[in-house]
Amino acid sequence: MILVFLVGFAIAMFFHSYLVPIDISGKSINSEGSGVVDKESPKHLRIPRINIDALVEPKGLTVDGAMDVPQNPDNVGWLVSGIRPGDIGSAVMAGHFGWKNGIPAVFDNLNLLKKGDLIHVEDGRGVVITFVVRESHTYESTDDASKVFVSGDGISHLNLITCQGFWNKDLKSYSQRLVVFADKKE
After folding, report:
1. Within a domain: residue 14?
2. How many domains does the chain have?
3. pLDDT digit string, tens, across residues 59-82
4. How would you label 146-175 residue by residue, b for 16+ Cβ within 10 Å and e otherwise?
5. Cβ distance 34 to 23 under 8 Å?
6. What's the rounded Cα separation, in Å, for the pair 20 and 177?
7. Residue 70 is part of a domain; what is its CATH number?
8. How do residues 77-104 score in pLDDT, each as one tens digit?
9. 59 three-class SS
């Protein structure tokens, strides 16, 4: 999702604020992405089917090489060093699931999205780019998730990531990751 030629990725077991970040340590992730936050950067994510209207936070990498996550359970993180939504390639956004103390989180109902559902991303200029859900896939925390990051088909994609499954108290991690794959509506 982040870069072309990015292979061999596994979703990290690293825990941070109840969302397991994406492990991209040791990889060059800026060969295609802008790494710049400006008026063309995403500001809002709207998913009518599951009543999401969330602010988008630009996020970088942690010192461990994982995608940082939003501090607010209502917000979505966009990997700023990756692809911008609407550009050719796979843009990545991550959101929380199962926030502590029973507080609702932005992607608690991401699993309810179906093929054909619409996702809208608005940038700082007010331009809205619409994506159509193609499929959802559940990964075990140890699976190779390189499909999430790679796109060489010349199309604009948006891939939404969250946790799901069972909470492991010892690992402080959920057992699975849910990825919703969407394509830009033409």
Report:
1. no
2. 1
3. 988 887 778 889 899 999 998 988
4. ebbbbbeeeebbbbbbbbbbeeeeeeebbb
5. no
6. 8
7. 2.40.260.10
8. 998 988 999 999 999 999 998 877 778 8
9. strand
